[in-house]
User: What shape does this take?
Amino acid sequence: MAVSAGGTLAARALVATLAATSASARPPDRSRLVAKRAAEGRNYGRGKNVDGGTGRALSGQGYRAAVRGDAEDGAGRRVKKEMSSPRERLGLTPEARQEMGGAASLGGGLLLPDFLTGGEVGGSGGPTADGYFDGNSDEGSALRGGGGDGDSDQSSSRRRLANQLTGCCETYSAYSAEDLCGSYGEDCQSGEQPSHDSGDDDCAQDGLSFIGVSFSVNTASGNPYSYQLCDQFPMENIIDRDYDYVMSMDEDGWLVGGGYKQFDYSGKMPYIDSSHTELLRVGSMDTDLGGTSIGQVIQAMSEVELPPLSIFPEYLKGGGGHNSGDGDDEGAPSGDITLVVSVVEVYYDNANYDEYSIFLDNLFQAFGDAGGGSCMDDDDTDPHVSMSRGVKFKSSWHQEQYMYEANLEVAVWQAMYPKGVVIGTKGYASFPPGRGGKKQYVGYGNLYFFFDRANITTAFSTYRDMTDDEKYYATLYTDTDVSSYYASTTTIGFDYSGSGDQGDWEHNPYSWKATSAMHDMTDGWELPPNCEQEGESFFGIPLSTKAGSKLQSTTTFQSQFDFEMLVDRNYTYIQSFGTNHGWLIGELFDNGAGSIVDKDTAHIPIFYIGTTNVDMGGMSLSDILKIAKNIDFGTLYIKPAFVFQDEFGHVKLQFEMDPSSAMAYLYDALCKELGIAWNYDSPYNDLGVYTSCAMHAAGDRAKYGCGPEGENSGGFCPQLTLGYKVRFQSEDHAAAFLNRANGYVDYWRGLYPSGVAVGTEKFCPDGGCLGLYLNRYDLYQVFKPDLGGSWVEYHGASMAPTYSPAPTWSGGCSEPHNYHLDKCFRKRSSSRPKLSVMAWDSLGIVGQFSILLVSFMALTLSVSIFLARARKRKRKGESYIGFFFRDLNRKKRKKKKLRRKKKHKSLGNKDLEEDMLSKSHRSSSRRSRSSAKSRSKSATRRRSKSRSRRERELDQGEDDEKSRRSRRSTSRSKSTRSRSRSRRDKSSERRRDRDEGSDGGEGGESSTPRTQLV
Assistant: This one.
């Protein structure tokens, strides 16, 4: 039957939609098989979940235990059957095992070196005739922690494993780390790796410590903790932070221009600005390995006179470094970007030698007198500033444009400083950073001792001040307008070509492949189509720990593995590292190599998401969280396989790739929902948000990954990177190191035969959690398996998630664990809104602004009145604050006087009223009592007024306008004395009248009533 093209496309679209609507990261469900067998009556009364014919469970824990048992039995039989052929190919002959030196077996073909066991291993089992251990022997029972019959103990182990939600990696349980190394296509025996290094016989450890000039700047787009030590060169003007020309770089990004702040779209390491130029490589700081101690460095620097050195910018160049893609049409070439500078020869006081040469001669002599080690360089280095490494441009045209613009900026600097400039600043800083040290004035012309490129330990100042010319140029950029230099410099007068030229080329995004996820982190990414910016964010399993000997701020994420057993802290086997990073599982603060002191960043990356910049083709962080919270994945089990060194020289711990594990199902789900559209496969998720910058294809699956069970064509290969570009002392040392490390891996493989879900009592106590990393340094959010919830782990902080479809703990919003969820937060906070908040909101923007404006005007008016009053009345030399408190005390005294005056006035009114109501028919005795009372009150008023007059005179002496206040006081005093005499005269008249009335009363005459006029 013919079908139209439109109908075919519609049918395909419908099928693709239906197939992608539910992306689950859980193993397949057997409920349909159980229902079918129950409908057919095949349970025979033995339970709904048991096959009556075989007695085996159909689903659940019993079914998984039976499957594990079958896998273990099958693996043992396959190993015994096939070992005769592969063992010669993989170097597994009994003679090869004997050469390893008395390795003891843990059973099942697992070996444990003598240095771990002391020459003995528990159990009575032994090897078979051909030199290999039988998985069914008593040794196998000893592996599972019990004695007695091996079969019964093996069954017990199966029952114990069945109690776990899931497991992994049963197929190759009988393989040792050395066996698996060959099956994965790696070499863990010969030590023939590309990063070996042999140096001076007297120097057993190469180091990175040095003395140099710092060009660090603090910018708005960079790390806020970066030093501001260079006011002369705006280094941010010669970097491409917006990715206009650059496609990708290594994980450190730009080393100049201010560093990187946290939550940067690129996901680069949040380091401070570490731009510098080396003048002397001190090297190792371990005196036992040929190094020089910090005390010797300080002693040597204190014995020499440091002049203010002038630095001249020469040109900016590319090339060097990795040069990946050279001669390869599939990838863009990469290299380093470097700013070449020079130290100007200054002849001070008409000397025969320039100051810099004299300083170097004296410095080498001082280091010799201080006992400097053999690892120190015998000559000064070529001055240059390393700006970035592993840089890949979008095309040769983009590279040329960047080089032109950056060198045009350098040309402006040359115009501003024709004879160089002394580097420095007027600000203050503390050395070393973050140590609570006291800030000191930086000044100009300093040299610094860098323990590592990100850690300035000590600053050394100059012995003389700058000349007038040196001071003028040192402050030119900050104290004057330099726009004229930029306007007048339109051409480049120096040659900057010939570095890193590889002809015409252009990055082909369609050459991207799924294996690009297996990336060298010290080089730039190959970006897929429609992605304009790289990114380092990824999903992974946290494995870092916190130890007292490491400079860390994170918590412990797992307690199952101690990766210290896999590194070489004492430099017994290794010589140095090819980058500024040391061991990535945490570097010691006083490490002799001078590696950057990082916290433990151990993790297993699973899925690289890329940039979080939506405008550049990425996916926002909030959308990533929304999707991750809805992925139903099982408990993530991991199992170490072997330690090896890859083609780039990185030392890694490989974990088994099991395509049927929960981790594999999670990878498949992430590819279905977040992978890029590739090879006619498109992603799908319920939110409809996608990214073009993920390093995994939508059609990629775990079964395409690495290892014997994969096809080595995909991006799934769980690995832990221990160190970048590790350089061993020799091939023999490399082989010995790998043999030692894999001995510990064999121990772990025996300890966790079915893998382990990592975690601690405080972090993911049930184990098997997934983490979202912003970069290798910052774990942002953690997700529990089985949709068990998530929390923010960033710097130990906690905040409400941006997306919460429903409570993740039983009990709903009444459960305290669910309080942080958006739904519960709104429900709890909006139940009883405050009336004050409602009233304020009801005013609206205009009303709220009006109230704030009136309040501000009232405040300013009050302040103005106070200032005007203070200018008139404050004493000479008295402060405004002193006047304010004195004025408050004076007002308190005045209030007390007013209260007393009002009281006295009310009493006087009562006397007047009694006098007005006096009648002739009142008895003389009553008038006598009234007169006595009046006399008493009059005397009281006189005393009160006398006290008031004295208090007023005291207050009047405190004011500046003494004459005016004195006249006013005198007038009031006269008036008061006049009223007092009048009242005294009237009182005398009343007494005389009473006396006369008494006499008249005796003669039968009555007195005439008196009337007082007011």
